[in-house]
Amino acid sequence: MLATFSDRSWFLGNETEKPHLVISYHNDTPFLAYHTPMQKKRARGFAAETKAEPHKIVRMGLAQVPEGRHVFLQMTVEDNLEMGAYTQPNASIAAGIADVYERFPRLKERRRQIAGTLSGGEQQMLAMGRALMSHPKLLMLDEPSMGLAPILVEQIFDIVRELHAAGTTIL
Questions:
Q1: Alpha helices (H) in the chain, listed in sequence order
Q2: How far apart are CA 103 and CA 95, in angstroms?
Q3: Coil, helix or strand for 115?
Q4: In whole angstroms, how far apart are CA 128 and each of 46, 48, 106, 159, 162?
Q5: What's the CA gap between 121 and 112, in Å, rounded?
Q6: Which of 3, 40, 92, 164 would bridge with 169, disulfide CB 3.0–4.6 Å?
Q7: CA-wise closest residue to 28 among 50, 58, 46, 13
Q8: How high is the pLDDT of residue 95?
Q9: Which of 43, 67, 47 shows the shortest CA–CA distance to 128?
Q10: CA-CA distance, 123 to 113, in Å (whole number)?
């Protein structure tokens, strides 16, 4: 699979145990690689493999929603969303949060609630919302429907289709 936008190319391949991901950048920006256990290399994340700083990777347009949700459990919903916008100008944060709340109205209802007390589905929405706060060009979703009720699965994939239609590349 190859998706191209502006001066960047994204490549995805598959091996037996885990995905093998190589993200190649042009213009002298180092490529990013995720190695599988089959290659006997430890995948410590993009920053460790390329010496690129995580915020620079996010600024390049990459956002990930990892399997297992991984929200900041002791922070509120709104604080989690603000963390997702750490590479964005302050003036755009309120609009980004409003966009997430429009996509996930349940999060707006729970904006002052501690994330660790949310249901699994709500945490998945929050993890996706936090990733969207960075305005990604490529959104990588790892098992976005795992453990969710069928109605939430449908809602998540409706949002994924909307994001794709708006020009976001989804893996």
A1: 46-50, 54-59, 77-84, 90-103, 105-109, 120-132, 150-165
A2: 12
A3: helix
A4: 20, 24, 13, 10, 13
A5: 17
A6: 3
A7: 50
A8: 96
A9: 67
A10: 11
* Residues in a beta bridge with 10: 3, 23
116-119: list long-range contacts, CB under 8 Å, 24+ apart.
116/71, 116/73, 116/74, 118/71, 118/77
> What is d(CA 70, CA 64) in angstroms, rounded to the nearest whole number?
11
Closest CA to 149 of 140, 160, 157: 157
132/141 Cα distance (integer angstroms): 11
Query: pLDDT tens across 12-47, in order?
Result: 444 444 444 444 443 444 444 444 444 444 334 444
Q: Each residue of 104-135: pLDDT tens digit?
A: 999 999 999 999 999 988 999 999 999 999 99
For residue 140, the model assigns a pLDDT of 85
Which is it for the CA torsion 124, 128, 68, 109, positive or negative? Answer: negative
Q: In whole angstroms, give the CA distance from residue 2 to residue 147.
A: 29
Whether 152 and 105 have beta carbons less than 8 Å apart is answered as no
CA dist., res. 57 & res. 5, Å (int):
16
Place of tokens 């990733």: 131
The tokens of 12 are what? 């995805």
